[in-house]
Design brief:
- The strands form four sheets. A five-stranded parallel β-sheet has the order 9-8-7-10-11, with helices on both faces. A two-stranded antiparallel sheet has the order 1-2. Strands 3-4 form a two-stranded antiparallel sheet.
- By secondary structure, the chain is an alpha/beta fold.
- It is globular and about 70 Å long.
- The protein contains eight helices and eleven strands.
- The two termini are 33 Å apart.
- The longest helix is centred in the middle third of the chain and has 27 residues.
């Protein structure tokens, strides 16, 4: 069980030294204390992601080069499937068979987007037919920049993979914040990223509360894209905050009829 944040390719203790209890829902026992990130830690993570995007090799790599890292992460997840599934169960409460399915699906997600990253090399742009022959138009697929993702408690590693894998495949750098109540497997994803030699700053993971760490990510002016899965009221606040800087936003919200705003930048 990890007791540090993952920033700029390495483990980092929270600047303010805070922690939060991790509770096994089956027994209601405190089994660990996770690192509580604050705005100061988010600032370091965003700076690392910004630097990795603006000056690092990641967005300049070919899709095939990025695919190698994604497949290495997929392999790392599969190699530790049973261990990670056990962590998911004691953190989230779901049965072991379901947790194992989720972790297997998370690995498959990284493989899937590795294939799409390679496809970007074959189809980097698309010509758009116009009615007026004097003009030409084309769509160019390129990474949007620094992405921040906030995921819920119900599918901890799988939801994280659904956001991390496409962002990395596209050439984005990112900051991930898992739900405070289910943070353990996201930190194992950080460990696997280290083993895969993912370049520093490409992926940063901050654990802690949504009202502190999550809000700092939402408000940060150097974040280009926000992706959130959770409640409608929080999604509304994220849209309002994003409007200040005209950030791109993707929301998957709870309730009978969730509003989902997907755009090319989610894959590009």
């Amino acid at each position: 069980m990890r007791n540090a944040l993952y920033i700029d390719g390495q483990w980092a203790k929270p600047i303010k030294g805070g922690t939060f209890p991790i509770i096994n829902p089956a027994t209601e026992e405190v089994i660990h204390h996770g690192p509580a990130g604050t705005a100061e830690d988010v600032e370091l993570a965003v700076k690392a992601a910004r630097r990795a995007f603006d000056h690092g090799p990641w967005p300049k790599m070919s899709g095939a080069e990025r695919a190698k890292y994604l497949r290495a992460i997929a392999t790392g997840i599969r190699d530790r499937l049973h261990e990670i599934a056990r962590l998911e169960t004691i953190d989230n409460g779901k049965p072991i068979p379901e947790a194992e399915w989720d972790i297997s699906d998370a690995a498959a997600c990284f493989d899937f987007y590795a294939d799409l990253a390679e496809e970007l090399d074959r189809n980097p742009e698309e010509s758009i037919a116009l009615a007026d022959g004097r003009f030409t138009s084309k769509a160019v697929r390129e990474p949007v920049g620094v992405a921040a993702a906030i995921v819920p408690w119900n599918f901890p590693l799988l939801m994280a993979s659904w956001k991390v894998a496409p962002a990395l495949a596209a050439g984005c750098t990112m900051i991930l914040k898992p739900a405070e109540v289910t943070s353990m497997t996201a930190m194992e994803l950080a460990s696997i990223a280290i083993e895969a030699d993912l370049p520093p700053g490409v992926l940063n993971i901050i654990t802690g509360s949504g009202s502190v760490a999550g809000q700092a990510m939402i408000d940060h002016p150097d974040v280009d894209k926000l992706a959130f899965t959770g409640s409608g009221p929080v999604g509304s606040k994220i849209m309002a905050a994003a409007a200040r800087d005209i950030k791109r936003v993707s929301l998957e919200l709870g309730g009978k009829s969730p509003f989902i705003a997907f755009e090319d930048s989610d894959i590009d």
